[in-house]
Queue: 2 jobs
Job 1
Amino acid sequence: MKPALTLALCALLLSCGASEPQAPQQGGLPPGDRALCQDPQALRLRVDPEAWSTRPANNFVRVQGDVAWVVQSGSNTIGRLALDTGAWEPDFVDVSADGQGRNPWDLAAYQGRLYITNLLTDTITVADASTGQLLGELGDLGLVAPGTPAAGQGLLVVPGTGFVYPDYGPSQIVALRVLEQAPWLEPVALLEPSGVNTGWVSFDERRGRFYAVSTGARSQDAASGVFGASSPGAVDVLDAQALLRGEGQRAMLGSISLSLAPGELRAGSPRSLVLGPEGRYGYLPSSTAPHLYKVDLESLALLRGPEDPIEVYVGEGNQLTGLAFVAGGLGLVTAFNQDAAYVFDPGCEQSIAGPVGLGTGPLLEGALDIAWDARRAQALVLMSNSSRLARVRVE
Amino acid sequence: MQAIPSHKLSSPGGFCLKLLLCLLWAQPALAQQGSQMDVTVEGEPEDARAPSAWRSRLDLERLQRTGGDLAEGVGAQAGVYARRLGADGARAELTVRGGSSQQVLVLLDGVPLNAARGGGVDLSLLPPSLLQSAVVHRGGSAARFGAGALGGALSLRSRLPRRGLVASATTGAGSFGTWRAGGALSGGGQELRGLLALEGLWTQGDFPFEDDQGGERVRVNADAQRLSGLNTLVWEPAPRWQLRLTSLLSQVDRGVPGVAEFQDVLSQARGQERRAVLAAQARRAELVDLPGALVDLELHASWSGQDNQYRNPQRLLRGDLPFESQLLDQSLQSGALASAYLGSLLGHVGVQLRSEGLRRRELVQPDRFAVDRFWRSGASLFADAEYLLWEERVSLLAALRLQWVEGFGWTPSPSVGVRAQASGSLTLMGNLARAWRPPGFDELYLKQEFLEGDPSLRPEDALSADLGLRWQPAPWLRAELVGFWLEIDDLILFLPVSQTLFRAQNTGAVTSRGAELSLELRPAPWCSLQGAGTWTDASLQAPPQDPLPGRPALEGQLRASLHGPRWEVFAGVRGRSALYLDNFGNLSDPAALFVDAGVVARPWKQLQLSLVGRNVLDERGAVDSLQQPLPGASLYAQLSWSLEPEPQEEEP
């Protein structure tokens, strides 16, 4: 027996080579990646990655005045963060109060009300922004899988991605007049966008325009396994007054196409258009590549497209998710795959610092969206996998 | 979730007071009776192959008396947490000492039930009425069972036929439209005997619960219809020879209600699961019978299959194409085990051959299924030995299993143990072992739209240690206190790598440490108290050392029973601390407390009635994983009839 015992002990010792615990990569670049340029003096950023906890499957954060709204699709709720006090009410609006899961996607806060797009029911829920009370729900608008809405000049414009598994069907853009009482919204136009997967609308107050972004279809390349763009993206420019007048398709002032880049499977797939600091240019992060695209909002021309992108960093990480312009006209871009943010300088069209770690540990937390709170000089970053809202103080 | 109002806690408080009174009242009687008491705490019989192992044997009779399921039984043991996805009939799994459910090996008559694709074993398909015994092996001593036993193992033995005619029938009904019926018939003689047992469960499962926002909801599409059967034939053609054939079939057709916030889009999702085990075993006792040497030999062969089908006519994100998939797991296993008794040495040597496969079929277009097939083989050689020292007061154990799995080569799983009788009432036991788990087929090869495996994954590799005391100062008192430590390297998890893709990854190392306390007290013939509690600290090693989800830091239960020859009244309390629901220690379910109570009566010798209330405080806000609510208060009544011959010697 003794040889057996000795053998077992030896085998035990030989087999237990303890491995060193891996150090956390706080926003570090994956091997092989490199930032294009770094200037740590540009901005001083203080990150509090665990500032607030959200409900699961958070989607977007929107700042309006002294309130931040967090859309939490996994719990069918909208959270309300009082920015002055930090008071957090995770279930301020419950769009499933009747028991039906609606999967809220995003919202527009406008004139004291929240207009929430529901992905599963193709509806818009209207809620009181001061009490959270549900005021109504509008359906039968011709929307299929609605995306990110925007509001301005008495209008709410909502895109429909048209996604019907497994393919993207025709997209829609619906314009609705905002009413002071029930039914709260009145359809004034149903438009056909230039591309597919129209998921984002933003409002340009200075020009009285809405920009509807079609991301284009995305698919996995069979040969390489790369998940990338498979049809061009587009930015449709809509005139708010023409929409209000019910001019329909004629309200579309123009369209900017973001064609595919041959040989670059990841290039393309733009997300929401974000107005630059002086409002002349618009920037669109790619949802499949570490790229920003740039359009001239005066001439409606594409300046930096998928074939000539602004590279925020170089590497295998493939997703930028949010962009917000902060103090000094600099942009903060979130990189989903790296739990990190980059500082983007629109003047030189380069990232000048980063990655700035936003996570807390070795597991990917997924920076999904960012919003800028100018009054308190802080950016709020939504970490989708870890259900957290991080705070980045800009000094 | 809302905290339980304090007035609701008055009920368990009163219960504890009564229990204390019961114990105090019993003390003089104990002093008078001393060791003459005929009521004793039996404890767990030693395992001849691992006398130092920390094991807990489930009281299957009690579970059957009260309509409890296997998950309820394992969840009552120290070191074990049973995770449920709903009420009766819903999927249930167990975790041991901070490991995951797929890091627990579950065996039926020695046949591993863990699917080749990975994941835990669904205990809801294994009703206690079909089992002869169920033993939880905690910690490293379970490594001897084979790959996959990182946290521990659950060893189940199918019910055996008895000599003479034995018949029984049970029927019961309860809350949420639940109905259970079963029966068994066993008969035969010295040479040949057989058993046929059946059990069915039908439940609507539509229990009320409280969602995260405090809203009152009703669980929909949680119905289940389960039918399970066991057939066993034992033939003893000659002295010391035994042949045994066993077949177990269990199938369930149930709703898969999914997360509570989206019940409507999952209201038609259905799952059909079938599990079958066919096993043949031949045993020759005393194959070699020489002075000072005795050798027994056991040969076995088995087939195990598991067919899981899922269908949801509604896509989560619309579309006409239903979600439809089928997973067919199969394994073939054969082996031999020789047990040798040579003076003060007891040893075992064995060999096992195993092949396991998976066929995955998924609807990808209206008229086209994608089909994937995977298959791999394996082999094990194992040996263990026990050496007795100092008048058999100290036992040293050593075991080594060398296991080869196609694609991963040979991996040793050595273990050592010690068991020392410190005094007449105190026993010290400790174990140190290495265990491992090769990645499942899903973790290696899964290729779906949002999920993919990684063929380059490394196996999970664990080092496990424990040390504890067992104290039995009197026949009516038994207590155990064990400290454990488990380190798992290369933990495999499906984690997001992008917004649209989860991939299986070797995540890093995790550590689980903790302590287990078990107590069994029978101060009087009519009063007993059983309790188990566990403290577990399971977390990732890399900073910030986030806690692992689904493992409460504290959990335990206490059960008191008053009983006579024809009746029993019992009450118990189960509780756990907050339960983390994500990998970041961010989302959690608050601490929860459940109180159960019941009465069992045997008005006639062959008839038994029971009435059991579970979660009688009606805690409706608890979950066991994200948005998978647990039922509130329920009531279950059962009537059992049995015809048994006079007591006879138990089967080996």
Note: The longest helix of chain A spans residues 2-15.
Job 2
Amino acid sequence: MSSPAQRAGSLIAEQLPDRPLPRGAGGRQAIVERAVAGRRPRPRWRPAVALAVAAALVVAVVILWPAPARPLAFVVGEERVPGVVGAQVAPVRDEGLAIRFSEGSTVQLAADARARVAEVNDHGAAIVLESGEAHVDIVSRPESSWRVLAGPYSVLVHGTSFDVEYVTAQERLRVRMRHGRVHVQGPGLGPGVVLVDQQQLDHCAGCDEPKEAPPATASAVRPPTTEARAAKRPPAVVEPASTTPHVAPSVGAPSETDSSPPLWRRLLASGERAEALASAQDVGLDSVLAEATVDEQMDLADAARFSGRTVAARRILLSLRSRFGGTPQAASAAFVLGRMAESSAPREALTWYETYGREAPSGPLAPEAMGRRLVVLERLGEGAAARAAASSYLRNHPDGPYVGLARKVAKH
Amino acid sequence: MRLPVALDDAALLEGLLNGRPAAVAALYDKFGSHVHWVLVRTLGSDRDVEDLVQDTFVTVVARCASVYEPSALRSFIVGIAIRLARNELRKRAVRRWVGLDDAPSLPASSRHDPVAEEALRHVYGALEKLGPDKRIAFVLRHVEGYGLAEAAEVCGCSLATFKRRLRRANERFEALAAADPVLRECLEAGRKEEP
């Protein structure tokens, strides 16, 4: 019999197995260059020299410790006017405008662009691109942390160079990589899209119709959590710029207004789910649930569950089932409702597991749902029903995770 | 830069010792993905993992002369990755202590199972409380499946020290799991499923 530590280890190994990395991830070329450059013989230090260096280090530590981290500074334009955090920056001349940061990174705004530096710290900055195009050139440093926020999208940046354009009216984002790697998050992009050297992303959250475009470079796109999530949104288009000239595909009708999305939606898009839930509750959960997409409701429900707000989680999941009945997400919500009810209302949990089985008999959670139903029936002492459930489990899910329990119950 | 054929560990090591860039590229092609995921599983997050993977391979190349047996190359690489992960865990602990760092978020699991993801989150929540050395002993033994002697070698400590760390890690984890309803339920369910 294995220990809890061994079972926890198995859980990690099952959930996070070795998987191929996306093409271009890992910095293969950078590793080769760094490794080859680093093959210099180490100097043989004499003890006296080493002692002197050590003493100098001690003095330096005493003088510099505790050195407060200083946030980056930035200047705007050729006149190098000191920048103000939060102030809007917009070029007045046709040649655009540059924002230069003290560690060497630059953001070059095109003539029609508007942006704000929303936050700076010692690792990087958050730049809000309100509209228009910008060329972003970030210096690679350890622990650097940069974000470009454009409407509901968030581009997480390390050392890299790329062009980004945001069309407010269509909630349309275009990213063209020059080199490096970015991670783009936003509605319809599932867990996010990783772009590497020379790739492009063209995504339109506000378009009504999916766009026609060359096929996506699959290796650069992480799969969304469910197929249905992807089906609900216009697809992201990711392509290598070096081989295919980028032709802007046709877009759907622009939205009627160009007002910014609500805060909860922007927070969700940038992955800050707990803050998004708090913001949604401030606004009023009912009104948020009336307009939230199925993906957003799933994310809000997760945020509520993981922070222990089971009442809110249940409310969101029930709303999701009411508004999006018949979707795979509605079936998943039934499963999660079952899990939440297991300890306090086991008979209700049985109903939810049976609902999942009915709505998604071949769904990815079917073996788990039927297995949990078996567990609950056994706990309730429902011998005959448990034996029937066990036989059904062995018949329908012979490789399922609860097959051991099913065999035991079926024997009795 | 890519080599036309996959090299075995002996040829790889020889190429590294001779300073061939193609051998570095082949080394990364062969072990890069595994090192990436070992780091993710150890740290419970993919934040900064790409940098750590780079550091691992640069260090491996710089120290490859100390690998006397080609068959030990894999353990040597994992050992360096684990040492870098330990430094990272220590840095994160300090950053969290002074309020500069949030708990890192988990990477997406391969199965997209909300219940398992929740359990995983609680497992890593418990591992955060073990301390770097005990956490690494736990991961090497229970997640990566290393034998005791090999794990001790990877950690760069004696077998007795590794056993002591592992015992303490197990005791602490089990105490934390017993006090966590989600973990207790999840691990209890797992126990029931065993034949």
Note: Confidence is low (pLDDT under 50) at residues 1-5 of chain B.
